[in-house]
Amino acid sequence: MAKYDLNDDGVVVVVGSGAGGGTLANELCQKGIQVVLLEAGKRESNESFVNDEWSSFGQISWLDSRSSSGTWRVGKDFNGLPAWICKTVGGSTTHWAGASLRFQEHEFRVKTEYGDIDGANMLDWPLTLKDLEPYYAKAEDKMGVTRTNDVPGLPGNNNFKVMYAGAKKLGYKHCHTGRMAINSKPRDGRGACLQLGFCFQGCKTGAKWSTLVTEIPKAEKTGKLDLRPESHVLKIEQDKSGKVTGVIYADADGNQHMQKARAICVAGNSIETPRLLLNSENSHSPDGLANSSGQVGKNYMRHMTGSVYAAFEKPVHMWRGTTMAGIITDESINDPKRGFVGGYEMETLSIGLPFMAAFLDPGAWGKDFTRKMDTYSHMAGMWLVGEDLPQETNAVTLHSENKDQHGMPTPNVHFDDHENDIAMRNHAYKQGSAIYDAAGAKENYLVPPYPSTHNLGTCRMSADAKDGVCNAHGQTHDISNLFISDGSQFTTGAAENPTLTIVTLAIRQADYIAKQLSEKAI
Amino acid sequence: MLDLDLTRREFLQTSGTVLMGTIATSSGILSMLAPSQTWALELTKLDKSTGHALLLATRQILPHDTLDDAVYALVVKDLDSAAASDDAVAKLLTDGVAQLNADAGGDWSGASSDKQAAVIEKMAGNDFFEKIRGTAIVSLYNNEMAWAHFGYEGDAWKHGGYLKRGFDDLNWLPDPPADASPSAYAAE
Question: Is the pLDDT of residue B17 over 80?
Answer without folding.
Answer: no
